[in-house]
Amino acid sequence: xxxxxxxxxxxxxxxxxxxxxxxxxxxxxxxxxxxxxxxxxxxxxxxxxxxxxxxxxxxxxxxxxxxxxxxxxxxxxxxxxxxxxxxxxxxxxxxxxxxxxxxxxxxxxxxxxxxxxxxxxxxxxxxxxxxxxxxxxxxxxxxxxxxxxxxxxxxxxxxxxxxxxxxxxxxxxxxxxxxxxxxxxxxxxxxxxxxxxxxxxxxxxxxxxxxxxxxxxxxxxxxxxxxxxxxxxxxxxxxxxxxxxxxxxxxxxxxxxxxxxxxxxxxxxxxxxxxxxxxxxxxxxxxxxxxxxxxxxxxxxxxxxxxxxxxxxxxxxxxxxxxxxxxxxxxxxxxx
Length: 336
Ligand code: SF4
Ligand code: MG
Fold this sequence. Notes:
This protein folds into 2 domains: 3-92 and 174-278, P-loop containing nucleotide triphosphate hydrolases (Rossmann fold), CATH 3.40.50.300; 101-171, no CATH class. It is elongated and about 70 Å long. The protein is an alpha/beta fold. The protein is built from 11 helices and 12 strands. α3 (110-122) packs across α4 (126-139). Strands 6-7-8-3-9-10-12-11 form an 8-stranded mixed β-sheet, with helices on both faces. The structure holds iron/sulfur cluster and magnesium ion.
C-alpha cells in the first residue's frame, strides 16, 4: 500500500528554565493510505509533540526541530513556509484534539464555522457550503441538523461538540486525520460512539488516521498498526495483532498489563509500571527504559538498543532481542 506520510529521524526540543528538553528523539514512521496508525504512550512520551510537528502547531517561542524530515506529497512539510502549511491544514491534513473547544470559536454559530471552512478551503458558494454543512452534521449523527446550524458551541454536549469537530475536520475530505486523544474527555459510552463514528467515516472517505492515545482499549478498537512511544522514542512498532499478542518490548508488556481486560465488565485492578520516565533535560545514556525495566541487563545502562526488525511490520529496540547480547546475560526473555 502506498505511503502518504513519512516521518524521518524527527527530533524536537524545548527550552525551559532547566535548559533544553529533548522531547522527541529520532522518531521514524510512515503512514499508509487509508490505514489507522495509533501512537500510544504515557503522557510526556512525545506523542502529541510528534503529531503537532506534522502540522507546525508547536509553540514557536520555545520549541525547535533540530533534525528531521516529514514528507507529504513529495514535499518536506518542515521546510514549507507557514502560508503553504496553512493551505494543507484543514484541507488535506486535519486535526481533532481532546478538547473540542480548541477547534471551535465559542462566539460563532456552528453552521457558520463549518460553512466558512468549506468556503475557504474548497471555494464553495454559500448555498453549496450550507448544504454540505448540513450533510456533514447528519453524517456525524447530530439530531435536527437544520436547527443546530444556528446553535453556538456551548449549546452542545461534550460528545455532540466533538461530533461537530469531526464533521468540520472531515468536511474537506482530508487525506489524513490526526486525532489527539479525541475521546479522552468523554464518558465511556460516548467514547465508544465517537470511535465508531470515526471508523464508519473512515470506511466511507478512505482517510488515513493517526490516532494519538494513552488508552490501549482505543488502540485495540481502531488501529491497524501501533507505534509505542517512550521517552521521546518509538520503542516498538507493529501490526495491532503483533503488539497485543506478541509484544517484544518490556514497556509494551507493562502497558498491556496495566490495561483493563477487553470485554470484561468487571474492573480488574491494574498493574501500573513502577517508576517514572527519565528526565529528558539530561543527556540519555543506554536504554531510556532501563530504570523501570524488570529485565535490565548491564549493557542496557551503557548502550542504547538498536532498532531490530522482527517481521516486515514489527520492530523493537531492546537488547533482549538482540543476537549480540550473550544468551547467558539474558533474563528469561519475553515473547521468545
Ligand atoms: Fe529493558 Fe534492556 Fe530492553 Fe531496555 S534494552 S527495555 S532496559 S531489557
Ligand atoms: Mg498529549
